[in-house]
Amino acid sequence: MALTGVEIFKLLPKTNCKKCGFPTCLAFAMKLAQRQASLDLCPDVSSEARQRLSEASAPPVRPILFGTGDRAVRMGEETVLFRHEKRFVNPTVFALEIKDTLADSEIRDRAADVMGSEIERVGQRLRIDAIALVNDSGTIETFESAASILASHAPSIPIILCTRSPEAARGVLPFYAEKKPILYGMDASNADAMADVAKQFRVTLGIAAKGLDELVHLSEKAKQHGIEDIVIDSGARSAREILEHNTVIRRAAVKKSFRPLGYPIITFAQREDSLAEALIAALGVMKYSSIVVVRSIEKWKCLALFTLRQNMFTDPQVPMQVEQKIYRIGEPTPASPLFITTNFSLTYFIVSGEIENSKTPGYLAVMDCEGLSVLTAWAAGKFTAAKIAQFIRESGAEQLVQHRELIIPGYVAVLSGAIEDKLEGWKVTVGPREANGINAFMKARRQESSHAA
Amino acid sequence: MAMTLPKESFAGRVYSLTIGQPPKKVIFGGENVLPFHSFEGSSPRKPVIAFEIQDVVPDDWPEEIQKPYSEVMGDPALWARFCCETLGAEALALRLAGTHPDRGDRSPADAAETVRSVLSAADVPWIILGSNHAEKDAAVLVAAAEAARGRNCLIGKAQESNYKTIAAAALAHDHKLVAMSELDINLSKQLNILITQMGFDKEKIVIDPMCSALGYGLEYTYSVMERIRLAALAQNDPTMQQPMLGDVGMYVWKVKETQAQEEDVPQWGGLKERAVAWEAVTALALLVAGAELLIMRHPDAVRAVRNAIEELTS
Ligand code: B12
Ligand code: SF4
Predict the structure, then answer these.
(1) Do A166 and A71 belong together in one domain?
(2) Measuring CA to CA, which residue among A368, A369, A373 is closest to residue A350?
(3) For residue A123, with 0-12 CB atoms within 10 Å meaning exposed, 13-18 middle and 19 or more buried, which class applies?
(4) What is the CATH number of the domain that holds B280?
(5) A18 and A88 belong to one structural domain
(6) CA-closest candidate to residue A216, choices A242, A172, A249
(7) Which residues of chain B lie closer than 8 angstroms to A251, CB-CB?
(8) Whole-structure pTM value
(9) How many structural domains are present in chain A?
(10) Is the minimum CB–CB distance between B36 and chain A shorter than 8 Å?
(11) Which CATH number does the domain housing residue A15 bear?
């Protein structure tokens, strides 16, 4: 557990000299406890106290940067067990397994799959982040050859080099000298030699333990070798073990500040059956894996896993939002209907999807309500008649459509009169409450207008 | 440094709940740990998955989910037998979708007739649901509860606006009750309290905190479920100790990811695999968050989730 303000205070010089910019040592200690100030501000703190304080203030799960450049990913830094307490920080890294026994052309194809895996969803660009090259052949030459292919065909993709052989590790690491790879494969039989290699090449070391006790032991050993950046694998492979071990590891790190387990977890989720693998990977995303290794990355599977990762790692306090503007659904003409809603991503995607389903082209005016749903925004005073009127006037809607009819969500039917008062020349129509009523609503309108004609 | 595993034990326990009649009853709930945390407490029952069938031809279901049932979905009794005999369903959920004013507006008497016919076609435990039209459901579920008398079904969904009638019907005909609120732990708790104040046994309620599909608010359902479960276990709150329901199929099979053809969205991959994965991943997420009972649609998704449950519990 992190130190309290009072515990920190006891370690400070207690002279109240104010050089830190705070009136008293106690005030400064309180800020430190809240992680709102840096210890460096106090010039007089003893080196012994400094060490104790920096150990205690280190994040419970060590932050580690994996890879370099645009594709580098951050891992660790997690502080909670449940996403409603505080946002999960660094989204799970997905890595595709590539065995060194594959033919060269296959290795290139798989690397290309990873490079081409990016898709966009709810405004975010999502992709398979990394490659896990596995020394399945057990020979150094084959491993080196595969590593050299990847180094030249997918040079920007962060890589996990998986081998139990320190010699093989020494053989491939030069290909990734300054690229912050992970060397995975320190186990009970090779611990000292692997730690030496990781130290020599200054890379993150992946521990391959058999069980939690051995994991603690190996993690301490790596630390004794002076290795700071570590990712940990307890050997959990079944769903049950993954859930149990990951939970114990995260609890030990977050609740007990137990340093030997305060590292990102790597989970090997490979399964013959692709859907079964997707579910194991999903379990890793929900339950604390920082890296999940899979053996296949079909597009459907990527979409499902990326979406789950996005859901789990959104901030429970700050909802996802879309840009305020008038969106075109289908191929609308100036006669097409104009709908309005709020800019909560979820609301936008549901409503635009339903307009699309109704096969009626239309315009959807999305108003900035700080990412709140329709009713929430209305209750919070952000989706009011005056604001809607102002938005419609300034949005350019009057140039897009010839008619002057605005369809509002059924839940805010009470606003219709007030909007008409404030938006001169416009008629407000109350739509259905649920977006899934839009189809029937549009159908009824079409029938009505054909009767009229 | 030696480490004693940081295990957690809780004062609270989830009620265990039975639906159906021997020998085909199912029991779920009963655990005193977080989902699948059997390493630190007792978790005596596996989650149950019910296949969903409907009283009318589900012509609003997208193509991929109509396919497995195309031969049987014109006849609810046939459909029910198909789920049991061919798909190995351990429980079934009948959704009386055709009673919705926009979907045919079938009468409570029609609904009761369907209930009688499906219940006699399959002797598995049954969940009987209205069409989610609060007013109409009150009338429909009263008739359905009576028609299902003696079968110890799970009836729903009782919501804030109609719980009185539905809870009274479940009570009168000896059924269990789904209590649904909209993604808010306090509303859920309040509804449970209101229902028990009517004299309804708190241990005969199943909480439905409202489902949402992967990518469409799943994180809200996930977190509300986690919070409800923590309230049950860590705070030992007797008004939150009911098992939870994830009504998965209904929410998943209306989103775009389960319908868009691959040629229209090539970057999303094959439709069949995508749609099945959408349902399976949503279901697994709710199980991990705390659901003990799921209502699902696609046989392949059910199979995958069953296998995952097996792996999580053995
Ligand atoms: C999650 C949630 C929150 C989250 C916010 C999430 C978000 N991004 O908006 C948080 C926790 C922050 C929150 C806060 C509050 N909330 Co709130 N919240 C909810 C909850 C549970 C779900 C909202 C949601 O995500 N809905 C899903 C989206 C997709 O729904 P939607 O935007 O309405 O869209 C649907 C329809 O409106 C329709 N639709 C949308 N656009 C359009 C357009 C057209 C043309 C058509 C035809 C249809 C249509 O289609 C959609 C799907 O069917 C609801 C209860 C509920 N289930 O509705 C309460 C609810 C909306 N909240 C409520 C309240 C009161 C509040 C607070 C004021 C509470 C408080 N006292 O602090 C605050 C206000 C926020 C603030 N900043 O001040 C009330 C509103 C009551 C009322 N009738 O006015 C609700 C209904 C709960 C309740 N019953 O008390 N809330
Ligand atoms: S600078 Fe250090 S000694 Fe001076 S007041 Fe601040 S904390 Fe105390």
Answers:
(1) yes
(2) A373
(3) exposed
(4) 3.20.20.20
(5) no
(6) A249
(7) 6, 8
(8) 0.89
(9) 3
(10) yes
(11) 1.10.15.40
Q: Which of B309, B313, B312, B314 is nearest to B90 (CA)?
A: B309
The nearest CA of chain B is from the CA of A241 a distance in Å of: 8
A390 vs A385: CA distance, rounded Å: 9
The CA–CA distances, whole Å, from B221 to A119, A333, A434, B36, B128 equal 25, 38, 18, 18, 22
Query: Residue A254: how many CA atoms within 13 Å on its side-chain side?
Result: 18
pLDDT for A319: 82
Task: Give the one of A243, A312, A356 whose C-beta lies nearest to B219's C-beta.
Answer: A312
> How close A124 comes to chain B (CA, Å)?
13
What is the domain count for chain B?
1
In a domain, A317, yes or no: no
A255-281 as b/e, with b when 16 or more CB fall inside 10 Å? eebbbbbbbbbbbbbbbeebbbbbbbb
Q: Which amino acid is at B225?
A: M
In chain A, what residues touch B288 (CB-CB under 8 Å)? 243, 283, 286-287
Please list every protein residue whose CB sits less than 6 Å from any atom of ligand 1. Answer: A 319, 339, 341, 344, 346-347, 350-351, 371-376, 378-380, 407-411, 431-432, 434-435, 438; B 182-184, 217, 220
Residue A1: per-residue pLDDT: 46
CATH code for the domain in which residue A88 is found: 3.20.20.20
Are A332 and A432 in a shared domain? yes
- DSSP class of A344: B
**Torsion sign over Cα A422, A428, A430, A435:** negative
Any domain includes A128: yes
Task: Tell me, in angstroms, the distance from the centre of ligand 2 to residue A41's CA.
Answer: 8
User: Residues in chain A with pLDDT < 50?
Assistant: 1
Nearest-atom index, ligand 2, CA of A16: 5
Please give the residue of chain B at the shortest CA–CA distance from A307: B215
On whether both A225 and A272 belong to a single domain, the answer is yes
Q: Please list the pLDDT of chain B residue by residue as tens digits (314 residues).
A: 566 778 899 999 999 999 999 999 999 999 999 999 999 999 999 999 999 999 999 999 999 999 999 999 999 999 999 999 999 999 999 999 999 998 999 999 999 999 999 999 999 999 999 999 999 999 999 999 999 999 999 999 999 999 999 999 999 999 999 999 999 999 999 999 999 999 999 999 999 999 999 998 899 999 999 999 999 999 999 999 999 999 999 999 988 899 989 998 899 999 999 999 999 999 999 999 999 999 999 999 999 999 999 999 98
Q: Give the residue numbers spanning the domain of A228.
A: 64-312
Q: Taking CB atoms and an 8 Å cutoff, what residues of chain A touch B284?
A: 279, 282-283
* Residue A427 belongs to domain with CATH number: 3.40.50.11600
Last residue of a domain, one of A35, A57, A79: A57
Which residues pair with residue A205 across a beta bridge? A183, A230
Ramachandran area for residue A132 (φ above 0: left; ψ -120 to 50: alpha; else beta): beta
* Tokens 């389960």, residue located: B258
Question: In which element (H, E) is residue A425 found?
Answer: none
Q: How close is the Cα of A17 to the center of ligand 2, in Å?
A: 5
Closest CA to A403 of A440, A433, A428, A386: A428
Residue B199 contacts A where some CB pair is shorter than 8 Å:
no
User: How many Å lie between the centroid of ligand 1 and the Cα of residue A377?
Assistant: 7
Q: Are residues A344 and A431 in the same domain?
A: yes
Which of B212, B225, B312 best probes binding to A when mutated, by most A CB atoms within 10 angstroms?
B312
| Contact (CB, 8 A) for A332 and A364 | no
Residue bearing the CA closest to ligand 2, atom 2? A42
Same domain, A285 and A398: no
State in Å: Cα A77 to ligand 2 middle: 28
ipTM over 0.95: no
A429 CB-near residues (< 8 Å, 6+ apart): A405, A406, A407, A408, A416
Q: Tell me whether residue B165 is exposed, middle or buried, using C-beta atoms within 10 angstroms of its C-beta: 0 to 12, 13 to 18, 19 or more.
A: middle
